[in-house]
Every structure is written in structure tokens, then in C-alpha cells.
Amino acid sequence: MSLELSEPLQKAIDGLSESFDDKILNVYQSTGSTFVLVERESIVEISEYLKNEHHYTYLADVFGIDRYTSEERFEVVYNIISLRDGVRLFLKVRCEEEQPEVESVTGVWGSANWAEREVYDMFGIRFSNHPDLRRILMPEDFDYFPLRKEFPLLGIPGSIELPNSTPDTE
Questions:
Q1: What is the pTM of this model?
Q2: Following DSSP, what letter does each residue of the chain receive, concatenated?
């Protein structure tokens, strides 16, 4: 399958293929965006390369995906942008359901700090070497991860104390 890419994006993909051929698992386009699936263990090295060599200096977002599969259940997706060239690229890694963990990219992009914490909080994917990996939306002692597909839509009764919603009439 031939991809139709802008010149700067094509240079980045070619550079990745030359420098990390054995670590690039798939390159594809969907809905007009380009995705590069890389080996989980190489995410920091590939991120540094894209930032330093191809000017992907802006990490817009990091998000998790629960594929709800028996192998490589979770994905972490990095939405990166080269402001110089005006192009966007999505880096993806996959991890297993049991003890999912990915190396933190906060050393490459400081903006990954809160986004990785949110992915941890909602999916339970740990980011090794993160400077402050703790929950930011749910209580620290909450035992569940609300964006996993097995989490009940209405929540788990009694898992969090809810505020009283009836007004005092005294």
C-alpha cells in the first residue's frame, strides 16, 4: 500500500524506516492522519529522534485505547506535531493487559506529564520513569480504571462516596 504524504511527513517516515526498521511495526493512514505503530521498548528513542531530527517539538496529547483483545489489549497514542513543517503524526505503542507499562516520554516532551497521568488514572497503564505518576481525576485509593471496557457504565455502587444531592430543607 502506497501512502500519499506531504514531503516533510514522507522524510520523517523514510528516516524512521532507515534508522529504526526493526522497531517500526506498521505505518498506515486513517481518516487523513498518519499512524506509526512502534515497539513499546523503543518509544523514547523514536520520540527523541522525531523531535531532534524532524522537529516534532509539540506533543499535543497522549491518550489510551482499550482494544479489548486477548493480546496487546491496550494502546498508548502520542499526537505529535512539527510546528515548523505544519504536519501531524500519531505514534502508537501496544501493551499487554497484565501489568501494562510503557516508558514515559516526559524527558522528551514535558507536556506528557499530565497526559500520561490521565492515561494511568483512566486505564491503569503505568509509565516507568515518570516524575510524578499518581492519579489526577480519581481518588488515590480508587481500585478501578473507568475507561477500561469492562468498567460498568453506571460505575460500581459504593466505590466512591457521592455528595448528597438532595437539598437541605431545614
A1: 0.89
A2: ------HHHHHHHHHHHHHSGGGEEEEEEETTEEEEEE-GGGHHHHHHHHHHHH---EEEEEEEEE---SSS-EEEEEEEEETTTTEEEEEEEEE-SSS-EEE--TTT-TTHHHHHHHHHHHH--EEET-TT---SSS-TT----TTSTTS-TT--TTSSPPPP-SPP--
Residue 133 CB-density burial (10 A; 0-12 exposed, 13-18 middle, 19+ buried)? middle
Q: Which tens digits make up the pLDDT trace of 19-69?
A: 999 999 999 999 999 999 999 999 999 999 999 999 999 999 999 999 999
- The two beta strands, 58-66 and 74-82, are antiparallel
